């Protein structure tokens, strides 16, 4: 059990932490991992927040009046919006806390796979690198519109995966939208330049 022991500027007499914790148990906080923050002034409330990021996630928080030991506020994780929940679950999964050992094994496999891809990419480049005899140069740029040749079922799948990733990890979703906007802007500029050249 983790107690957040800060500077005792409020009414934190001996036994206050246990009394506040007991009050929160009656309010429904059942996690063994909690953080208790004493009140910063006599007219302020103590706060107790669950910190169990495993599954099922327990991240409720309550406010307790130190005078009456009554719960004056309760923020339930179950009442948060879906984006907020997905963000918390993504953070816990990224830290290897959401599903315990299986989560950590999956992250280790992913890390090893990424290292393998990076090393493999450098090996492939080294084998096909330009030499003085062959002449230095770059490979051909992939033609625009190549994804249009993908099978019809690929686009709905890509859309669902993209939307899911954007909701699950909002920062990744913002990056995807920014990339698509930049790609569309490049396409518009290239199309106008081509039309201008063909007109002349």
The succession of helices and strands, N to C, reads HEEEEHHHH
Record field, number of beta strands: 4
Tally of structural domains: 3
User: What is the rounded distance between the termini?
Assistant: 76 Å
Average pLDDT figure: 83
* Strand order in the largest sheet: 1-2-3-4
Helix amount? 40-55%
Largest sheet: 4 strands, antiparallel
Sum up the overall morphology in one term: elongated
Which structural class fits the helix and strand makeup? alpha+beta
The percentage of residues in β strands lies in 5-15%
Supply the number of helical segments. 5
Q: Which helices and strands, and how do they pair?
A:
Layout lengths: L15 H11 L7 E4 L8 E5 L10 E4 L6 E5 L6 H13 L6 H27 L26 H15 L1 H30 L1
Antiparallel strand pairs: 1-2, 2-3, 3-4
Helix pairs in contact: 4-5
């Amino acid at each position: 059990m983790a107690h957040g022991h800060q500077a005792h500027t409020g009414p934190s007499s001996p036994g206050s932490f246990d009394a506040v914790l007991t009050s929160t148990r009656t309010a429904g906080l059942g996690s063994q991992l909690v953080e208790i923050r004493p009140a910063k002034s006599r007219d302020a409330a103590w706060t107790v927040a669950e910190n169990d990021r495993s599954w099922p996630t327990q991240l409720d928080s309550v406010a307790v009046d130190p005078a009456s030991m009554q719960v004056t506020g309760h923020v339930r994780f179950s009442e948060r919006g879906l984006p907020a929940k997905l963000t918390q679950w993504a953070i816990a999964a990224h830290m290897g806390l959401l599903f315990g050992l299986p989560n950590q094994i999956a992250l280790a496999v992913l890390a090893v796979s990424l290292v393998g891809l990076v090393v493999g990419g450098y090996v492939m480049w080294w084998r096909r690198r330009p030499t003085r005899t062959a002449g230095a140069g770059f490979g051909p740029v992939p033609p625009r519109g190549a994804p249009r040749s993908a099978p019809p079922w690929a686009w709905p799948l890509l859309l669902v995966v993209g939307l899911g990733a954007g909701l699950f990890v909002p920062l990744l979703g913002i990056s995807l939208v920014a990339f698509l906007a930049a790609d569309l802007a490049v396409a518009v500029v290239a199309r106008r330049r081509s039309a201008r050249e063909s007109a002349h």
